[in-house]
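Appendix B, record 7
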Amino acid sequence: MLNVFFVLILSSCSFFIGKIDSELIKEKDYLKNIPKTATFCPLTQKAKLQLLSSNSNAQSMYLEFTEKNPNYDFLDHLALWTFIQLALRPDQSSPSSRFQVLIKRNAESHYLDFFSETPGEQFPLLYGLDWILKKYKKKTSLESYAIILDAHFSNKLKVGKSFEAFLITNQEKITSHPVLGPFFVRGTEVLKENERVPKLSFLEIVKFYRARSSNQKVIVNTSLTNFTTGSGQIGRCNYDFNLYDNSIFLIDKVSPDANLFGFASENSAFMASTSQKISDIQPINSFPLFLGESKVRSSAVCVIENDKNQIWTFSNQSRDPGQHLFHLIRYGLTSSKSTYEVDKLIRYSRHLFLSDPVRLVIESHRSRLDQIENLLKLNLPIYNADKLGNIWAYTSFNSQSRFIIDDRNPGSFSCK
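C-alpha cells (predicted):
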C-alpha cells in the first residue's frame, strides 16, 4: 500500500528542504489572493458548546436538540454525535469503519484507535464506542442512545456535500444495487445535498452488532510517538516523525477519505476520524450503510500540550497526511500562542514530496513569488496543485477552546 522512498539520495535535497521550511510564514501578504473564510467561532463569543463536522444542517438540528435536552453530559454527547455520523456519512462512518478519537477530560488528552485486520463483519466503530463508554464508567448502553436518536432524528437529517460527492462518484454501482439503490436514488439521480438521508434505525443496527459482538476482533491502539523539535518543543503523533526528519516519507497510492467530527463543552472535548476502504459497493445487512474494511491508512494525528495549552491536529485527504503535519510543526506549530496563529499556519501554502517519479507538488497560489523562484532553481520537477490535504484542529489557550476547519475543503463549525 505504501511507497517508502529516501529523498536524501537526491543531490541538493538538504538545500531544497531548507528553502521550503524557512520562516516565510511571518510574511503578511502570502494569502492576499485567497478569500478570507471564517474557520472557527469568533474568540469574542462565549462557546459553552461547540460542534464540528462537514454537515452544517445536522449541527443546527443537534444544537436545537441540546437546548431541549440540557441534562446530557459530555459522554452522552460523544456517543450521540458519533452515532449520528452513521446516518450522515454511511460511506466513511459505517460500523465497519476505523475509529480514531482524541478525548480531553480533566485537561488530559487520550488517544484511541480502533480497527480490525480480520475480514468479514468487523465493526470497530461500534466496538470502540462501547469500549469508551465502559472505560469512562458510563452506565448508559448503546441501545439507550439508539432509542434516543430514533425518537429525535428519525427521517430528519439531510445529505451534506461530502456524502453527495461519494454518491455521485459511485452513482452507477449504487443505482444498480437492489438494496442500496432504493435508499439513495430518487428517479434516475442519487441524493443531492440538502435532500433527506434514508431513515436509519439505530436500535436495529445495535441489535445487529450485538448478535455478532462475540466475533469481533478489534485492535485497540492507545500509543502515540513522541517528537522533539530543534527548539525543544515536545509533542506526540501517531506517525513517527523521526522518519520524516531523515527524509523518509510514507506515500500511499491514493488519497484516503475520512469523516472528521467533534464536540466540545467547557473543559471536555473529543475529535474523531472515521475511515474505511470500500472495495465493492455492498450494504451492511439491509441497512443504508456501506460495508468496508477498517485496515486503511489512518488520519495523521498530533497532540501538543504545554503550559496548560493544547493543540490537536487531524490530517487526511492526502497520499501522505503525516507530511503535512510534519511541515506544519517545522513552521512553528508547537510554538503557537493562540488560535489565530494555529489558523494562520493551517492556511499557509503546503507542499508534498511524491515518488515514481520523485517530484514536488506545491500550492503555488498560496506561496510567495520569491519562494516559487527559489524552488524553480532546483533540479527537481515541481507541479502546482489547487489544494493539498485537509487539516482540522482543536485548540485550548487560556482556558478558551476552539475547533478550526481547513478553508480548502467543506467543513462546518457551530458554537453557542
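Remarks on this record: DSSP finds 13 helices and 20 strands in the chain. The mean pLDDT is 90.
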